[in-house]
Design a protein that fits this description.
Layout lengths: L6 H10 L1 H22 L4 E9 L11 H18 L2 H11 L5 H7 E5 L5 E8 L2 H23 L4 E5 L14 H26 L6 H8 L12 H17 L1
């Protein structure tokens, strides 16, 4: 006979294991908070913008063909900016204790659609170093592109600036704790139903009916110690009278 679980049974199980679910949720939130605030290294982000022009000294007189040609160059520039030819010079200029491969992972280069503005975004545990890397990358690229492609159509539009009170972009403790709460809640509910499934003990008459499939004909009431003592005294008193 196939067993079915009603919605009432589900809520009954949740109510029965509510304490476990709450503990698991609180535990997951606590772990997420401790990891976010104490164990994860804060990462700061900054960016600088460079402008791809047809002529460096005249940024106002463009025609559509010139703009299209510049847009086609941007994809090439995005690759060159993160190439060892540029980043090795950045490491040398700033005396960084890193490699070009590691530095590549810290830098993101992109541009808006149909835009000649290229964004160089840098993430680093040190906010000042992130600013230095972003600005130096733009400066080195501006200088080296003349030698690499024999063009002079790049200018720094907006340099990166170190703010007074920089805030890390990651980790996000509140988001991590919210995710931890959801995971803890799911784990708590899962463990609650697993424990209920594995619990095969018979505790009451309803369990007897569910397990054996037979109706309960009668119940034996539980006799407390006080009632038992009174019964013994009454029996003893009757024997004396007899």
């Amino acid at each position: 006979m196939e067993e079915t679980i009603s919605l009432q049974d589900l809520f009954k199980t949740l109510k029965k294991r509510l304490g476990l679910i709450i503990v698991m949720t609180i535990l997951a939130i606590t772990i997420s908070g401790v990891v976010s605030f104490l164990l994860l290294t804060p990462i700061y982000q900054t960016s600088t913008q460079i402008l791809v022009n047809q002529e460096k000294t005249d940024a106002t007189n463009f025609n559509s063909q010139e703009i299209q040609a510049n847009l086609q160059l941007i994809n090439t520039y995005n690759v060159i900016i993160k190439s060892p030819a540029i980043l090795s010079l950045v490491i040398e200029e700033l005396d960084l204790d890193t490699t070009t491969t590691a530095l590549t992972e810290q830098i993101t280069v992109n541009n808006a659609e149909n835009s000649q503005v290229v964004n160089i975004t840098v993430q680093d545990p040190d906010p000042k170093r992130a600013v230095d890397i972003a600005n130096m990358t733009a400066e080195v690229f501006q200088a080296e592109i003349k030698n690499l492609m024999k063009v002079d159509n790049v200018s720094v539009l907006t340099p990166a600036i170190l703010s007074d009170n920089p805030s890390p972009v990651k980790p996000n403790p509140m988001l991590n704790m919210a995710i931890g709460a959801v995971i803890g809640l799911m784990l708590g509910v899962g463990i609650a139903f697993l424990m209920e499934y594995l619990d095969t003990t018979v505790k009451n008459e309803q369990d007897v009916e569910d397990v054996l499939g037979l109706p309960v004909l009668g119940l034996i009431s539980v006799i407390s110690d006080k009632d038992l003592q009174s019964t013994k005294l009454e029996v003893a008193s009757r024997r004396k009278r007899a």
